[in-house]
Write a structure and sequence with these properties.
By secondary structure, the chain is an alpha/beta fold. The chain is built from 15 helices and 17 strands. The strands form four sheets. An eight-stranded mixed sheet has the order 5-12-11-10-9-6-7-8, sandwiched between helices. A four-stranded antiparallel sheet has the order 13-14-17-16. A three-stranded antiparallel sheet has the order 2-1-3. A hairpin with a 6-residue loop joins strand 13 and strand 14. The chain starts with a helix and ends with a helix. The relative contact order is 0.14.
């Protein structure tokens, strides 16, 4: 009985959508040696050789592994967050006599001084109470929620419909999907320097080359257009433009954005517009979207609730598809839909609240947030502008301010990482070294902390710099004369 059972098997017909038929055969009846006479159970017509207990035979007999050897994938090995790589290696031991002030985390909720608006919270409560949003949403998001985003961001120069919107698990997933749909291993993307570290993290894990184009601090972090254009080749699959900027807090003018678009148009390269800080600009500053300025360059704009609505933990982002002249056609759209199906993206509860959040949040909430960020930025800029050896660059939006370090005046330190590490040790103030953004000898300050802490932190940074500042030798000679 045992030997007869061993010779029985099943042929299972599959077409990729499920099992469509099952037939009992004798494995030795076909050529006497197996399904195809060679012991191979997998045919070119999609028939799989399955044993009676339901397990697949391998296509070829393979030797049993002699020992355990489980290795991480190449994607896992190639995934590296530059911020974590630097910060995790720093020796951060705060001065026990001074309370810690963290100016390093781009999360506006950390200190509790910037709560979201009551209308935003009420929208979430209503979505929960309705019990309509406890199940799975479509991978691209509820149609009603996508339409709400389309209505909110549509303008005559760049109209949007629901089909042009894909909802995602935060802006980070939006960026991930865009890079994934546009790029193959061996392609390259153009990334701002200094720039948000996630671009490199995602691209490197996919085998995509990162080419850094320079931003110019002396021009309020405008793009070095000649450098940008020089990096484009036949394998360039997209240009990433972050506006307003993390980590710089800069906001490009309409004219400058048009120059960037002109470069992209000349070389037929699409743009990934990271606009998570869209409309978080200071009074009097204009911040048009890239899509509203483009006549031919297709643009995939990424955004979300995280920063403008001060709810980064809610993980609701979006991709806005601006397909100028039908260049993307159906394939890129279908590709984004397919990629969105790898996980069921944005939280259904937040999607249920989204229309109310977009439509009912009062303008006074946005204005209050912007006024606070501008005031804090001015305090920080004014205080640090008079500190010898430091050169802050005044921002125009977002939540950040970059400060240059004249390392020649600080011989006690090897680099910006060493400088910021010692700042923690001596003054319990933590700023992020800009080496994390591929831009050494600067550090980034997050300006969302309470005003009194910002003033205190600037005073400590001043004290730290005064202690370690050294005039150059030629400066000393000039003084002697």
């Amino acid at each position: 009985m045992t030997s007869r059972m061993e010779n029985k098997s099943y042929l299972v017909q599959m077409n990729g959508n499920g099992v469509h038929g099952k037939t009992t055969v004798n494995a030795k009846s076909l050529n006497g040696t197996g399904v195809n006479g060679k012991g191979v159970g997998l045919h070119g017509n999609g028939i799989h050789h399955v044993s009676v207990n339901g397990t697949l035979y391998p296509a070829k007999a393979k030797s049993r592994r002699q020992r355990w050897e489980v290795k991480p994938s190449e994607m896992a090995n190639n995934t590296l967050n530059p911020i974590r790589a630097i910060v995790d290696g720093m020796k951060l031991t705060p001065n026990p006599d001074k309370p810690m002030i963290a100016l390093s985390i781009g999360d506006p909720t950390v200190f509790g001084n910037l709560p979201t608006d009551g209308a935003v919270l009420q929208a979430m409560k209503d979505a929960i109470d309705s019990q309509k949003y406890n199940g799975y949403a479509p991978s691209v998001g509820y149609l009603k929620s996508r339409q709400a985003v389309a209505n909110f961001y549509s303008c005559p120069e760049a109209p949007l419909e629901a089909e042009d919107v894909i909802l995602t698990s935060g802006c980070s997933q939006a960026i991930d999907l865009v890079i994934s749909v546009l790029c193959n291993p061996g392609d390259n993307i153009l990334v701002p320097c200094p720039g948000f570290s996630l671009y490199k993290t995602l691209a490197a894990s996919m085998g995509i080359e990162i080419k850094l184009y320079n931003l110019l601090p002396e021009k309020s972090w405008e793009v070095d257009l000649q450098h940008l254009e020089s990096l484009i080749d036949e394998r360039t699959s997209c240009i990433i433009v972050t506006n307003p900027s993390n980590p710089c807090g800069s906001v490009f003018t309409k004219e400058h954005l048009q120059k960037i678009i002109k470069v992209a148009s000349k070389h037929c390269v699409p743009i990934l517009a990271d606009e998570i800080y869209n409309d978080m600009v200071y009074p009097g500053v204009s911040s048009p979207t890239m899509a509203s300025l483009s006549s031919d360059v297709p643009i995939l704009a990424c955004g979300g609730l995280a920063k403008r609505w001060l709810v980064p933990g809610w993980r609701l982002g979006w991709i806005l598809i601006h397909d100028r002249n039908d260049i993307f056609g159906s394939q890129i759209r279908q590709g984004l839909v397919k990629l969105s199906q790898r996980i069921l993206g944005a939280c259904s509860i937040v999607q249920g609240a989204l229309e109310s959040i977009l439509n009912n949040t009062p303008q006074s909430f946005y204005s209050k947030t912007i006024d606070f960020l501008k005031t804090n930025s001015e305090i920080c800029f004014n205080e640090l502008s008079t500190v010898p050896g430091l050169t802050p660059v005044m921002p125009s939006g977002a939540m950040y301010l970059m400060v240059g370090i004249d390392m020649d005046h600080f011989p006690d330190f090897k680099n910006d990482v060493d400088f910021t590490e010692r700042l923690v040790t001596e003054q319990s103030v933590f700023c992020l070294p800009a080496s994390a953004f591929e831009y050494p000898n600067y550090f980034r300050i997050v300006v969302t902390v309470p005003e009194e802490l910002m003033t205190d932190a600037c005073g400590r940074i001043r004290e730290f710099c005064q202690r370690h500042y050294r005039p150059r030798s030629r400066d000393s000679n000039d003084l002697d004369q």
